[in-house]
Amino acid sequence: MSLKNLLLDLLFPPKCAFCGEHGVHGVCAECEKKLPWCDTPYHERTGIGKCLAPLRYEGAVRESLLRFKFRGGRGNAEGYGNILAQCVAEHFGGEFDLVTYVPVSEKRRRERGYDQTLLLARETCRAWDAAPVTLLRKTRHTPAQSTLKTPEERKANVLGVYEAVGAEQIAGARILLIDDILTTGATLRECVRVLKEAGAERVLCATLAASDEK
Questions:
Q1: What percent of the chain is predicted at pLDDT more than 70?
Q2: In terms of C-beta density within 10 A (0-12 exposed, 13-18 middle, 19 or more buried), how is residue 193 classed?
Q3: Dist CA 124 CA 120 (whole Å)
Q4: DSSP character string of 158-190
Q5: Does residue 185 come out as left (phi exceeding 0), alpha (psi in the -120 to 50 range) or beta?
């Protein structure tokens, strides 16, 4: 372990992303066995196609993600990234050229102090010695999707709020788009549309968890 990593461990002791056990980088062995893994990582949504999501959004996964998004649990990203990187490598290996993410609004980033999906994308890419590229920008602040009750409300909430940036990188590219949770798919669908209209050849999607697995 490098001196930099040793110092980081002293200042910010690592802990399991799900149970909080100290001294664990990523996910502890006990949680890895008990997590609610999806029977299949593939989840279908109209306008998206197959989206990878290795975990069900319930129990310890739900609690962990809520800490990650709303209670300053940014350290959880390491464990999430390890899980998602393995899933993507197994099922989408060789099928994308660039990795990007669904950004939060500038207002929400300031409130939280970080963009949680960018952290997830960074930790996912770290396993491949790569880095995500910013290809989308959220142009205005909107209510959190989790506060909306119907698919129609969620769709309307994100319509037209994302724009493509870095058009020269998007044109002709096969892109992996990362988000944290898949529910109705409204946010991913809108981002896929924007990227394809900007010239992307193909957009694949991956999230840590999905809410539809029974």
A1: 90
A2: middle
A3: 6
A4: HTT-EEE--HHHHTT-EEEEEEEEESS-HHHHH
A5: left
Torsion, Cα of 101, 104, 109, 115 (10° steps)? -20
Residue 162 β-bridge partners? 138
pTM: 0.89
Which pLDDT score is estimated for 142? 75
3-class secondary-structure state, position 15: strand
Nearest in space to 102 (alpha carbons), one of 211, 205, 173: 205
133 vs 121: CA distance, rounded Å: 9
Task: Answer whether 123's CB lies under 8 Å from 81's CB.
Answer: yes
Alpha-carbon torsion, ordered 117, 137, 210, 48, to 10 deg: -140
- If we measure between CA atoms, which residue out of 119, 121, 115 comes closest to residue 96? 121
3 state DSSP class of 90: helix
Report which residue type is found at 184.
T
Q: Identify whether the C-beta of residue 79 lies closer than 8 Å to the C-beta of residue 17.
A: yes
Cα distance between residue 136 and residue 181, in whole Å: 18
List pLDDT tens digits, range 84-112: 999 999 999 999 999 999 999 999 899 98
